[in-house]
Amino acid sequence: MSSLINDIHAEDVANYLNQNRQFFHVFPNLLDELSLPHPKTGQEISLLERQVYQLREQRDRLQVEIATLKDIAGENGKLLHNVYTLSNALLSAQSEQDAVDVVYRVMQETFQVEFVSLMSWELPNQSLKGMNQLGISQQWAETLKSTLRVGRPACGLVENEWQKGLFATSEKMESVCVIPLGNHRIWGVLALGSPVDRFKPDLGTYFLEVMGEMITQRLQRLF
């Protein structure tokens, strides 16, 4: 008998119980005798106490997940409202100059972006205040254009030379977002800068893409 017991391993018991789920229905009194280590203190507790602990852990995790989902929903709702504000203002703009002014105003006042710049590689068919030219002789500007893709905003940290070129300032920025403008070719960008890590590389870009499309459609006739 002792030899048989010695040949039984924990895995064997676990497999047996897994294959015979009715075992504790036949021997329910064994449940009262079970003791398990507390996950944090290591002290022995009953099966019921362990189950209560696990339920509390699950409840706490669910509360965190629900709170996170509420935050995401609230943030997305705010972003949607801001995008609607931009769309409505662009549609109401009476001229291309008004549209350019709208972009700066909404980005700064509604989206609370500290640094905003509209830039173009191509020469617009009319001179507009706020639509700045990216020099074709500047290596960084050509590198930037070659790395961008139509309809795909890029976020993260860029070199100081790029920051100075995009925003005409030497103020330090922790993150930058570059939104390409153009349908079949990129003729310009909307550059957004922040002194904090706001525009992270893994930032969701759906709303940024929508804004890029709206601005492109409103200013496309200039190019």
Describe this structure in words.
With 223 residues, the protein is an alpha+beta fold. It has two domains: 26-92; 96-222, Beta-Lactamase. The chain contains nine helices and seven strands, in the order ααααββααββαβαββα. Strands 4-3-7-6-5 form a five-stranded mixed beta sheet, with helices on both faces. A hairpin with a 6-residue loop joins β1 (35-37) and β2.
| CATH domain fold name of the largest domain | Beta-Lactamase
Structural class assignment: alpha+beta
Name the poorly predicted regions. none
According to CATH, the homologous superfamily of the largest domain is GAF domain
Radius of gyration: 30 Å
Main β-sheet description:
5 strands, mixed
Strand content: 5-15%
| Quaternary state of the chains | single chain
Give the number of helices: 9
The CATH architecture of the largest domain can be given as 2-Layer Sandwich
Main sheet: strand order: 4-3-7-6-5
Name the average pLDDT: 81
Which term fits the overall shape?
elongated
Q: What share of residues is helical? A: 40-55%
Q: Report the end-to-end length measured between terminal Cα atoms.
A: 92 Å
User: What's the level 1 CATH class of the largest domain?
Assistant: Alpha Beta
The tally of strands reads 7
**What is the N-to-C succession of helices and strands?**
HHHHEEHHEEHEHEEH
Number of domains: 2
